[in-house]
Each structure stands twice: as structure tokens, then as C-alpha cells.
Amino acid sequence: MTALLLPVYSLWSREMKRFYRQPSRVVGALASPLMFWLLIGSGIGTSFRAGSGARTLNYSEYFFPGTVLMILLFTAIFSTISLIEDRREGFMQSVLVAPVSRSAIVLGKILGGTSLAVTQGALFLVLAPFIGIHPGISGWLEVTGVMVLGGFGMTALGFIIAWRMNSIQGFHAIMNLFLMPLWMLSGALFPPDGAPVWLRWVMAANPLTYTLAALRHALYRGHTGLASLPPFGFSMTITAVFGFVLFALATGMALQRRPEAVG
Fold it and tell me: Which of 111, 190, 227, 239 has the fewest CB atoms within 10 Å around its CB?
């Protein structure tokens, strides 16, 4: 057990220290989503109404969980850039030849990114009571669970992408091409109800749709007013399976291929 936990803790601790020693990364992880939420939410404002019955949402309130998801995604994904940096500096090669299991290496890196994502998301959630979101103690516990599972899966996704990347520029290109649409088609920007049928199918196949749905359920204690939202239990299951599958894929990649140093 010590042989497993020590490398996991060491890599997790290294990720945390590296992140918080770079204040620009801390500010960027929060400032950009906050700016998106304030500008887009204020711009659309009360001209947008979602939900039905006793519960209707203006756009700032609707977009709030989507902004939390953006913070989780961006922090988790960008934390895995360190994998490319570690390879360039030769650190990853040293870790891979050490007498520790590859699964411990992968788990340590992913848990580091997950912790960062959850911490940044929790800081943004401080604003929730100011727009009328009061989940209560049990709701906050559910929100934390959703963020941990979602952050784990998204960090594992970033690990898979970064493992095969030779440059940070290529990583950013993949993010703009693949990860931004993944977030936009999760229901973060608009509900699927008014979208074309083909787009609703794409959104239904997107695993982040279920992470966001679980987050909405937890924040609003099930009273979201959005009739088309998947059930909480089902959404949590999909989110957990998504994270487990990606962790298994990341571990498999680490077992099969040793990354070479890049110049």
C-alpha cells in the first residue's frame, strides 16, 4: 500500500505546489470564466427564460452551473499541460523508470488536476448565494461529489491528450477544436429543448451533458424547472463511468508507450 500511496501523494503534491506557485494560472483559471459569466449573463439577462412552472431562470442563473463546468474543464485540462513540460524537462522519464506502478503515476497526476479543478470551482461557487442559489448542506455535499467525479474524468481526458502531444501549441489547438465544443454542447450555453433534433442527439451523446445535469440537480435540489434534464442518479452514473473508462484508457496508454523527451 505504501508503494502505491507514496508516488501518488508525491505527484499530487507536486501538481498542487506547481500550480499555486504560478499566480497567473490561479487568476486565469477563475478570471476568464468569471468574465464570461458576467458579460454573457448580463448581456442576455432577463431576455432569456428557462424552466417552467414555479421555477424559471434568467440567463445569469441558467449560465452559472455552466460556468462552474467551464472552470472544472479548463483547470483540469490545463493542469495536464504539466505532463508535456515534465517530458521536456526529463522529469517524466525519471518517474517512468522508477520502481513504481504506472497506474500510481497516472493516478497521482490525475488526482492533482482533480484537486485543482475542485478547488477553483469551489471558489467560484461562493457567488451562488448572491444569485439566489441555496442548496443547503446536503446540496453542497452533492455538488462536491459531482465536481470530484467530473473533474476526475476531465483531467483523465486531458492526460490522454497530453500524453501524445509533443508541444503545448498542439495541445491548445486540440483544446480549441475539441474541448470547447464539448463544453458548449453540454447545455452550458443553451438548453437542448429548442435545438434541432440532430443537435439534441449530439448533446445527449456528450458525457459533459450529464455532469452538468447532475450539477444543476445538486445546486437547485432537483427544482431546476428544466423538464428535459436527465435524472440525478443517471447523470452521476454516466459521470462516474466516464471518469473510470478514461482513467483505464490513460493507464493503458502509460503501460504501452513511454513518452520520449521533446526538444
Answer: 227
